[in-house]
Amino acid sequence: MNRNFYRLSIFVTALYIAITFFQAIIQSRQGLKMLYLKAFVPWFFLAVIMNFAGSVILARYYQHKKYKAAFSTVVAVAIISIFYFIVAYHVVTGNALAAHYTAAYQLMLLAAMAHAIVLVFSKARERIWLKAAGMFGLILAVTQLSFFWAIMSSQSFQLRHTLGEVQQWVAVVGSLGLVLYIKNFRDELNAMETEKSEVTPYLLSNTVTVFTMMVVFAATLFLSFNLATDKRKARLAQNRPASPEAERLALRFEARVYVNAQGDTLPYRLMKPLNYDPLQKYPLMVCLHHGGAHGTDNVIQVEGGGYAQVLSDDAYRAKYPAFIFVPQCPVGSSWGGITQLPEIMPLVIEAMATLEKEFSIDEKRRYVAGISGGGFGSWHFIAKHPEMFAAAIPICGGADPSLAKNVVNVPVWAFHGDQDQNVPVGFSRDMINAMRDAGGNPKYTEFPGEGHNIWESVIQTPGVLDWLFEQKRK
């Protein structure tokens, strides 16, 4: 090995630590919306490349030091990490591999744990900083797995949300463990007395090394700036104050809060049918808002609830008498179907059950509709509880196509714009095609040339509400 190898190793490791911290800061400000920023995809590939480069450097170093066990496990970590990144990328951009995310994440942590154990107990432990890195990595992997299992097993969405935030920062702090590798490379560099060392294709000249570092650093700065300044979706992550129009819309509904036995709370708005008669049975319309209405104010979800606005008009109330149920999802959570965030669907289902005990609701005529994040939620609700819903209207949403077999008997009318840059149209196309392949007969309307904001086109589509309220579970 020559000095340039260790210099490049220190540079790559330090830059990866900086990337990890920068991403954590952006994610803490924007939450899940960061994943749908246009600038996130190139940033994601930068992180993957830097991660892979670090693995290659370690593998070459272990090979040089003849640490066979460490070499084998770091190669395994690199391969499994590539698999995890592929799954994670598809979850973000297409949701097609969402069912494999849990397994991929756990497998990656187990591989990291195996590598850490090898550093502690194999020949590599002769290097004090490698042994320390192994001990640190083992503690980190066990902690991450414990948090992950706790999140998956918890029945409280608020607890899952809190654990998820803590786990995120544990991972960030854990990246500091890479400093131990920097210390090891630094010691190797200081110990070298001459440049007359083994020359291999991996070792670079001074000029090439400096040039490579400059290019990588410039690319990182450029992509970091793009990610930090991409506002196309960032403002949706803010818990913005209610506008006068949002306040006016919300006043048509009764403000309520559901609290379950664990103390989890769900603010929601409810509108009863016009001239409600408890001796009659009425449909229940569940309206799931988009990402811009996340919060706890129990106001802005009506404005973001799509059909909640339409059906609150007296003319529509007279034509389609129904209970309009508009829950509000807190910031940092989801309705479901989005792997990276804790879901509040169980809490919504519980609240629905209490409403059905209180009011005269037709259990065969439950409907769900939503936009964007609410579109994902609509798919998720019928996929997890197909026996509950008589129909669904997911708008620019999506789901894992492997779940299509669960919803073949649920009438669906989905909508999407073919130029949607926030939620790619492939989300809807894949789910609709999977439903048809499984024997279902969903309706699908795609708007050519339209992007994410298709709501006006949706409400101008004739016959949607007539179709919806005709649906009834057998």
TrEMBL record:
Spans traversing the lipid bilayer: 40-62, 69-91, 103-121, 128-151, 166-182, 203-225
UniProt GO molecular function: hydrolase activity
Keywords: Hydrolase, Membrane, Signal, Transmembrane, Transmembrane helix
Record has Hydrolase as a keyword: yes
Pfam families noted in UniProt: Esterase
Superkingdom assignment: Bacteria
Protein name, as recorded: Dienelactone hydrolase family protein
Provenance organism: Chryseosolibacter histidini
